[in-house]
Amino acid sequence: MSKRPFITKVQAEEIIKKFPTPFHIYDEKAIRENARKLYKAFAWNKGFREYFAVKATPNPTILKILKEEGCGTDCSSYTELLMSKECGFKNPEIMFSSNDTPAEEFKYANEIGAIINLDDITHIETLEQACGIPETVCCRYNPGGKFAIATTIMDNPGDAKYGMTKEQIIEAYKILKAKGAKKFGIHSFLASNTVTNEYYPTLAKILFELAVEIKETVGVEISFINLSGGVGVPYTPDKEPNDILVIGEGVHKVFDEVLVPAGLGDVSIYTELGRFMLAPYGHLVTTAIHEKHTHKEYIGVDASAVNLIRPAMYGAYHHITVLGKEDAPADHTYDVTGSLCENNDKFAIDRPLPKIDMGDILVIHDAGAHGFSMGYNYNGRLKSAELLLREDGSVVEIRRAETVDDYFATLKGFWDIIK
Ligand SMILES: *Cc1c(COP(=O)(O)O)cnc(C)c1O
Hints:
The protein has 419 residues and is of the alpha/beta class. It has helices at 9-18, 28-41, 60-68, 78-86, 103-111, 123-131, 166-178, 199-218, 244-259, 275-278, 310-314, 404-408, 414-418; strands spanning 23-27, 49-53, 72-75, 94-97, 115-118, 136-140, 147-149, 152-155, 183-187, 222-226, 268-271, 282-293, 297-301, 320-322, 332-337, 346-353, 361-364, 385-389, 395-399.
């Protein structure tokens, strides 16, 4: 699969006249089409809902687009809850899947009608003291060990801080039931960025069997099962993307095999996808401003890890297209760098690319999720703008770039001292 940007060089040049690089730009049409496909994949399940993981792309314009497509939000902090509420999400459209949660946030989540997903058995007490036990409550499961599909190890839940053990989660439902909860959910997130159609069905089987066991041993009915995030995207061009229709059918099959015979055919399936909903539909657009020939060939761009930290943080691959040179041979090898005083501030290392000239516009792909949102202000660099390519081809700014005043705003007394 080759990766083509959703904007051309001519379009980018036009956009840059008004909004200088670097910026993130999102493709509204593709976001909507993908969301519709997800709903189609789970149309067999009456109560299906996608709770978009706000942390992936916390922008109200994006949240409202997803709301129009039927999605709710998944939050894990006060600000994400507040943003969801202000965007008009209401009970039961907000999921609060947090961990290490401050008591005030449970209280606020409950106030705005969010479904609270407990990460630990000890949080029952925190929740009860903060706001009482709500009628609907969810618990997060962590089976421990390694999570494998066939013989391939996908991730390592035994090392993850999230969720409760089997014994704890069963005990948690007993306590919650005794304290008056009526509707129960199960949640689990066992592997991140999976590029296989088997992840959700494998996870679903584990959770569906757990639901049956809980029904039998605790005597509570599970009303929803939240498969959470983890359906990924192919960051590298050699990978085949997930087929969400196949994934939906895979979950359907396990649903019919495990839940229906146990009398649990009314269970709603929820997802909390972030990356799958947005990553491919956002580009980080940046301009080449320096070339440097020392022990290696470097291209310096006007974006840095402040705009997209995944390569620096995880060594993540993000595909790069030089606009206008989409079909040119990749006969040069570059490190593409930002300006931070950290040697890991590189968008690409030893990457074959076409010859890059100063002023060339580069598209860094799959930056629509966990891109802007993971940004920070190291070296006093300011966060860039977010733009939206509308369905009619127009471009609007949906978050302005930070200014120097924004950067200094939290420094008490600073202006008085320097004046
Ligand atoms: C991060 C996260 C998600 C979304 O994960 P993606 O990899 O973006 O799909 C969903 N639920 C929870 C609880 C998370 O922490």
